[in-house]
Amino acid sequence: MRKTRLYLLIALALGLAACASLGSRADLVSVRILVDGAALSASVPAGSSVRQALQAAGVELGPLDRSEPPSYTILQGGEEVRLLRVSEDFETEQSELPFVSRTLPNEALPVGEQRLIQNGVNGLQEATYRLLYEDGELVARTLISATTLSQPVEEIIMIGAQSPFSAVGLPGRLAFLSAGNAWVFDGSSGARRAVAVTGDLDGRIFEVSPDGRWLLFSRTSAAANTINKLWLAGLEEGPLTLIDLGLENVVHYAGWVPGAAYQIAFSAVDQADNPPGWQARNDLQLLEVDIDGQPGRTRTLLAANQEGFYAWWGSSFAWSPSGQRLAFARPDGVGSVNLASGALDLWYSLPAYQTGSDWAWIPGLSWLDEERFYYVDYTINPPSFALMLTGPNDSQTIAQDVGLFAMPQAEPEGGQVAYLRAFLPSQGEISGYQLMVATPEGVSMLLFPPEGAAGLTPHKLAWSPSAEDGPLIAFLYEGDLWVVNVLSGEAQQLTGDGLVGAVSWR
After folding, report:
1. Closest of 320, 334, 185 to residue 260, by C-alpha
2. Distance (Å, rounded) from C-alpha 456 to C-alpha 503?
3. CA–CA separation, 473 and 342 (whole Å)
4. Nearest to 287 by CA among 238, 229, 366
5. Domain boundaries, the chain
6. Are 343 and 288 contacting, i.e. CB atoms less than 8 angstroms apart?
7. Which residues are 208's β-sheet partners?
8. pLDDT number for residue 16
């Protein structure tokens, strides 16, 4: 009896174990795995993911490997999983950046004649690519970076064009900026020569040396944290001569010091991410240049400072005719610089003009003699701009309601001043302007344009260095260079391409 009961218990235990085993097999799902050219099988508990099935099959996953279906997919049983082995590589290659050819009309050459001014040179670029492989096959090639190792140099060809204007005599050398290049009229408007044909002059700085041998100008720059750079161009006949002065980020002021043998004063800015793109230093440095145009030592005339309102915008400067005195203009006033101590002597304070934008207004100024200079005054009630002649202790009005861009320019060795007067003085930012000339006593005369014609856009004017046949003023009108005789009032157009942007005359 006892043996029979024992046998029954053993049989019951075996039956329960068999049932448990059958239940475990029922909870497993099978999956077929294709990897590395082989087919594997794996059984995993129901509810497992593809990743868990791969791990159960002993398949090691690389950091870039991917599966089809994705590794997070829950298996139902009977699926086929494909594991793709993914790898990456990087390669660099260099390629040429082709130069472009530019043709410039030249009224000094016979019609149709061509002359190569600058040879074109291809640039060089280095590109880095990411190569993506799946199971050893390249499936993607993606550019991830490109660096320009050298910029291409334009090919520049001059082609003769018929000038529609009669040649006129011009004393000295009249330099002008057109389409990013510098040209000079040497004694006549029929004697045009190219002196800098890089195509990247920005027009911020453009001034002929007192002896007419050199042109100081600024060029845009693609270098990091660099707005532009200062260069010299030789104005003597012969091969083009361009000299890098090693100075950069000059926005508001750089100019030759009168009476000094090749000294250049300049004020720099630091490039910034916020508008207007710079933070002015408001300093003044002096660079010595030798007779061959090579830069020498630099010394400080005025230390960097942040005095006055809107100091971030910057200051401008002007030398007296002898080069012994220096005036400054900033958004809130005008005065002189003590060259011995480097201190600023503020002659007149001005309310800073509210432009409502990311630029600031600087009063124009120009010396009449060693004691007085012309400047543009601003008053708030009512808002108006006046042309003034001022000394350290007194000031007189030359012309009322001239507009904020009057740009006064005193006649060399003469008392007259050329300036611009706005058609709509209260809207001087957008108004057209008239070219005027005035005496120190405040007698003004209109020179240009004729009645009913469009006005001038604001720019720096240039007087002729000689007044033998009557003083001449060079100015820009609708993109072209003009001169007007102050005595006769006769105006003559000198260029016809509509691309002129700056002028300087010595």
Report:
1. 320
2. 14
3. 34
4. 229
5. 2-84, 88-150
6. no
7. 215
8. 43
Are 187 and 171 in contact by the 8 Å Cβ rule? The answer is: yes
- Name the residue with tokens 């230390």: 303
Distance from C-alpha of 356 to C-alpha of 420, rounded to nearest angstrom: 23
Cα Rg of the chain, angstroms: 38
d(CA 120, CA 387): 49
Sign of CA dihedral 489, 495, 498, 503: negative
H or E stretch including 432? none
pLDDT at site 23? 40
d(CA 316, CA 363): 9
Q: Is 484 helix (H, G, I), strand (E, B) or coil?
A: strand
Considering the domain 2-84 in this protein, what is its CATH number? Answer: 3.10.20
Residue 158 and residue 108: Cα distance in Å, rounded? 10
Q: Please provide residue 354's backbone torsions phi and psi, each rounded to the nearest 5 degrees.
A: -90, 100
Task: Quote the pLDDT of residue 119.
Answer: 86
Q: By CB neighbour count within 10 A (0-12 exposed, 13-18 middle, 19+ buried), where does 144 fall?
A: exposed
DSSP, collapsed to helix, strand or coil, labels residue 410 as strand
pLDDT of residue 153: 87
Beta bridge partners of 331: none
pLDDT in tens, 108-129: 666 777 878 778 999 999 999 9
Paired residues of 439 in beta bridges: none
Query: Looking at residue 236, what DSSP letter applies?
Result: S
| CA dist., res. 59 & res. 48, Å (int) | 15
Task: Give residue 417's identity as a one-letter amino acid code.
Answer: V
pLDDT of residue 116: 82
Segments in the chain below pLDDT 70: 1-26, 106-110, 161-164
Name the β-bridge partners of 424: none
SS (H, E, C) 265-324: EEECEEECCCCCCEEECCCEEEEEECCCCCEEEEEEEECCCCCCCCCCCCCEEEECCCCC
C-alpha of 105 from chain center? 26
pLDDT tens per residue across span 450-479: 999 999 999 999 999 987 778 999 999 999
Q: What is the rounded CA–CA span in Å between residue 9 and residue 492?
A: 128
List C-alpha distances in Å: 195 to 178, 235, 307, 432, 465. Answer: 11, 6, 39, 31, 20
- Is the distance from CB of 434 to CB of 446 less than 8 angstroms? yes
* Superfamily of chain region 88-150: Resuscitation-promoting factor rpfb. (2.20.230.10)
3 state DSSP class of 179: coil
Rounded Cα distance, 69 and 66, in Å: 9
